[in-house]
Each structure stands twice: as C-alpha cells, then as structure tokens.
Recover the amino acids of this structure.
C-alpha cells in the first residue's frame, strides 16, 4: 500500500509539469488545445531516440522541450494567423504529430532499459527520488509564476480575460496566444520526456487521454486548494496532479474494477471534480436565498405587528 502511494506521488510530480502546461491553455487562455495528446508523445519520442543514439540525457530532455514549443507554436499559428478554430487547430496538429512521432521513433515503441537517463542518478535511491522530483516541479512552477508576472505574462493573462480590451491598448493578441500555446506544449513535452525516462520506454500511444488527465489535475487541484491568484492556481495544478494519481492508484485497488475500466474511471473523476463544486455553490446560493426570504418574512411580520 505504502509503495503504491509513493509511486503515485512520484508519477504525479512528473505529470505536474503537464498539468501546468494544460493550466496555461485551459485556464489562462481559455483555449481548448488538443495538441497536448501529440506533444506529450513527441517529448518522449525525441528524448528516447536521442538517448538511445548516444546523446546526453540532459540535452535530449532540453530538445524534447524545444520540440514541444515548436508543436505548440504550429497550433498557435494555425489558430492566430490561419484563422482556424482553436479546437480544430489542436485536432489537426494532434493528428499530424502522430505521424511525425512515428517518423521520429521509426517504430511504435522505443526501449530505454539499461540506458542512462536524467533520472538514473537517483533511480536507486527511494529517499531522494520524491524530493528531487518535488524540487523540479516546484522550480518549474516558480519559473512559470515569474513569467506570468512579466509584461509578456501579464499580456498573456489579459488576452485570456478579454482579448478585445487588450487589443484596444495596442497589444498583439495573436503573438501572446502563440507564446501561450507554445509554452504549454513545451511543458507537456518536457513531462512526456521525463515520464518516458522514468518508465523506461517511449510509446506512440503514450499521449492518448493526456488532455483529460491534465484537465482532471487542474480541476481537482482548484476544487481542493482553490485558485485565488497565480501562485495558488499553479500550486493547485501541481498538487492536483499528485492528488489525481493517488485517487487513480486507490481506484486500481478496488476489486470490482479491471484495467479496462481505468479510462472510464478517469472520466468519472473529471465529472465528479466538475459537478461537486457546482452543486456546492448551488446549495450555498439556495441556503442564502432561503435565509433572505425568512428575514424578509420576519421583517414584514414585525411591521404588521406594529401597525
């Protein structure tokens, strides 16, 4: 039980980078980007091929991040300059990346067993693994927080809030959208590269359902930890990824569920994370309305008694 929970935390911290990427498009830009299903695999594919061909694992991981940036930039260009609907642009890029990823790997699966990776130095030390991954996730989170408080980051946030208003101030919203989508997919590809190195292989189907997993992490994190400001929102996305993997791990221990039920379980987790906060707000609003009605009724009865 303890080992499975530790494993869930480790995987959650690796997926946290992907959740931060999804947070940029989903919450900041309000952009339904399905490119992440392809760019996640791209990150793993690039890292795996470079490492197996003798490149430095660190260089391979950096290149995976850069390839994710390029994939996101293509989606942003299709949407901003090609005037293609955001959802359709993401779908088109996701389909394109499937073929590109197969070209990169040359086959559906590339093994990284018995090869040095960026995680090899701490792979055998269970006590160091989680702290190092936590430090990495926090470093990326703080770097993202810093960027979102720069002029470019503020323009990105303003574009997501009210693109028409920010255009009236002379800002180029097309550029900010391209930057945001590019950065998002860069983080997703970085997560894919690290997870491929952690699991020991890169697979062409590794990115299937990544967008749902990322949304689940963001929504669960916001439901549990809140999102009043940028610092808290990015922290919620990070912790939400860990919480999701823990819930996922606990679901695996339910005897009634088979491995084939895991996608359904993911969907149910997302539905619960979306519905529960809405129901909670609705109940609070009803309670407030009931209280006000009772107060008005009491006030009117008091006035009737005086008259």
């Amino acid at each position: 039980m303890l080992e499975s929970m530790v494993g869930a935390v480790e995987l959650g911290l690796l997926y946290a980078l992907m959740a931060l990427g999804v947070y940029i498009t989903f919450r900041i830009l309000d952009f339904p980007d399905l490119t992440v299903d392809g760019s996640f695999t791209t990150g793993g594919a690039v890292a795996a091929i470079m490492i197996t061909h003798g490149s430095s694992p660190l260089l391979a991981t950096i290149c995976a991040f850069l390839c994710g940036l390029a994939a996101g930039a293509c989606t942003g260009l299709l949407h901003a300059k090609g005037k293609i609907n955001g959802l359709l642009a993401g779908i088109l890029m996701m389909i394109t990346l499937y073929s590109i990823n197969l070209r990169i790997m040359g086959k559906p699966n590339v093994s990284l067993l018995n090869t040095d990776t960026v995680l090899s130095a701490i792979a055998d030390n269970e006590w160091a693994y989680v702290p190092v991954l936590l430090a990495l996730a926090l470093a990326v989170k703080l770097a993202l927080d810093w960027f979102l408080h720069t002029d470019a980051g503020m323009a990105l946030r303003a574009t997501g809030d009210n693109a028409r208003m920010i255009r009236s101030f002379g800002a180029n919203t097309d550029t900010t959208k391209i930057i945001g989508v590019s950065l998002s997919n860069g983080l997703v590809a970085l997560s894919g590269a690290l997870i491929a190195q952690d699991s020991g292989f890169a697979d062409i189907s590794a990115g299937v359902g990544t967008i749902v997993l990322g949304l689940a992490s963001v929504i669960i994190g916001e439901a549990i930890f809140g999102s009043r400001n940028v610092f808290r929102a990015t922290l919620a996305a990070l912790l939400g990824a860990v919480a999701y993997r823990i819930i996922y791990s606990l679901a695996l221990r339910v005897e009634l569920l088979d491995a084939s039920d895991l996608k359904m379980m993911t969907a149910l987790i997302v539905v619960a994370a979306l519905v529960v906060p809405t129901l909670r707000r609705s109940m609070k609003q009803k309670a407030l309305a009931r209280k006000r009605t009772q107060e008005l009724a009491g006030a009117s009865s008091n006035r009737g008694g005086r008259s």
Q: What stands out?
A: The mean pLDDT is 87. The chain has two domains: 2-253, 263-307. Residues 37 and 211 are 6 Å apart (CA to CA).
